Amino acid sequence: MRQLLVVVAARPNFVKVAPVLAAFAGDPSVRCHVLHTGQHYDWAMSGAFLEQLAFPAPAFELGIGSGSHAEQTAAVMVGVERILKAGSFDAILVPGDVNSTMAAALAAAKLSVPVIHLESGLRSGDWSMPEEVNRVVTDRVSDLLLCHCDEAIVNLVAEGIARERIVMVGNTMIDSLLSLLPDARASGALKRYGLAPRGYVLVTLHRPALVDHPGDLHDVIEVLAGVASTLPVVFPLHPRTRARLQPKSASLLDELCVLEPLEYFEFVDLEAAARLVVTDSGGVQEETSVLGVPCITYRTSTERPVTVALGTNRLVGTDPGRLRMACVEELDHAGGSHRPAGIPLWDGHAGERAAAAISAFLRAGAPLSCALSPADGLT
Which pLDDT score, from 0 to 100, does residue 338 have? Predict the structure, then answer.
């Protein structure tokens, strides 16, 4: 039996990995061991969410918590190295582009443990984004690269990655979205918050490039307060965003419907019924494209251009004036919804394809195992 170490760290990782773990549940040839780094450690953003996903209990927990990029990366590398040395793993699976993803991939590569990257090949071209650095570094040390769109394959080949190491599997995050959507719609979130379907704008903003600059964040909140004069603006406030608010910005929040961070079911329920979504999140761009909900992305670049080309996403940059204009245009659009996009292989079966590709890799590749003496074990 092959042993696969699966690393998760933040909420999007759980959503992406869950369908792969579910597919492996019926495969006696591969045993998955989940390692939760604890990069996101708040219960509402992690523990309760795992229960809703029916996510298996982690075999290992690092509990690294918050810290600088260097602190998080170093802590994960040390922890993952220790776990790899204590066990006998045939490969490590890392999803997405958070600090833990890159750190775990580097630790494994230095121990000659094959690296499998789920959601490989995404590129924004913006090196000021920490996630862009994480993606590129992870892909460079990966042995099997699992992609969710054709553009990702083009990016990897252009960077010199051998085509035989790349497999198109589709978007596993959409598997989770589609499977949990009925339960999400039954969560009662709309009624609980007094909202009507297509009767509000949903906002998520949390990226450092925006919220770490108080003036820029204030400008956006000022625009949102103006939008709220037309339609209620629902703003689940990320802890990072709340911590960066200045008094003049906080006063404008009285014009908005500010909520605490939402658990996954509630968020998807509000997302699916929104008239418009304003975000700086990558995953939300994908979810809204499948749900057929108009989305405005307040960023200068996106690593998910397929959501603009085939989905419902609109990239407006970081000019508050353009954001205001885009909101007005979208809210003036008759009907307030778009037809769900037909993005190839975003069909609810990506987890099965990913598991099949990983199984084939483990069988054919005869990867090295990291098996050391008990003296090298965990302390």
Answer: 60
| CA dihedral sign, ordered 49, 53, 56, 60 | negative
Q: Which residues contact 75 (CB under 8 A, 6 or more apart)?
A: 62, 64, 67, 103
**CA–CA separation, 291 vs 274, rounded Å?**
10
Q: What is the pLDDT of residues 63-82, one digit of tens each?
A: 988 889 999 999 999 999 99
Does the annotation count 206 as an active-site position? yes
CA distance 185 to 60: 33
Query: Does residue 337 register a pLDDT over 90?
Result: no
Give the residue extent of every domain in the chain: 2-171+345-376, 189-332
Q: Does domain 2-171+345-376 have CATH number 3.40.50.2000?
A: yes
Question: Strand pairing partners for 295?
Answer: 277, 313
pTM over 0.85: yes
Q: Which fold has domain 189-332?
A: Rossmann fold (3.40.50)
Query: In Å, how far are 7, 87, 151 from 84, measured between CA atoms?
Result: 12, 5, 33
Quick check: do 2-171+345-376 and 189-332 share a fold? yes
Distance between CA atoms of residues 293 and 271, nearest Å: 8
Catalytic residue among 40, 206, 238, 338: 206
CA distance 108 to 114: 7
